[in-house]
Amino acid sequence: KFEVGTKTSCVVVVGDGKTYRYLVDLKKLYGSSLSWMLPFPGDWHMLKTLQTTLMKVYWDAGLKDIASTTHRAQTLNSLKLNSNFKRTHHFLLQSWEAFYVHQLELYANSQLATATLDTIG
After folding, report:
1. Bridge-partner residues for 39, per DSSP?
2. pLDDT for 59-116, tens place per residue?
3. C-alpha–C-alpha distance, residues 108 and 104, integer Å
């Protein structure tokens, strides 16, 4: 039970493709009686739409340099053009994970350096 109105004011309802469209149409049709429902497009559709934009914006800002270390010729071009969803998806996830891990390592090293200076001084 969501107990809308007592414990929560809204519920996010996720749907892909037609399901999302049905949710939006139902909300328009029934108006205020479904004011608690917040239709949200499924993650896959969001990623499919945004992936091309991410590649266009960030390709020449460094992603090309990263990709060229492990990909060549047609594979590299398919990343740039986002013509293979699965390949580009994995590349973006791995790149994000590498950036995130690097940031965590930098933070941990700075904390260790600070702690070392505190014990010395």
Report:
1. 13
2. 999 999 999 998 999 999 999 999 999 999 999 989 989 989 999 999 988 888 777 7
3. 6
Instruction: Name the amino acid, one letter, at 75.
Output: T
Nearest to 42 by CA among 62, 23, 60, 27: 23
89, two tokens: 């998806």
Secondary structure (H, E, C), the chain: CCCECCCECCEEEEECCHHHHHHHHHHHHHHHHHCCEEEEECHHHHHHHHHHHHHHHHHHHHHHHHHCCCCCHHHHHHHHHCCCHHHHHHHHHHHHHHHHHHHHHHHHHHHHHHHHHHHHC
| CA gap 28, 56 in Å, rounded | 35
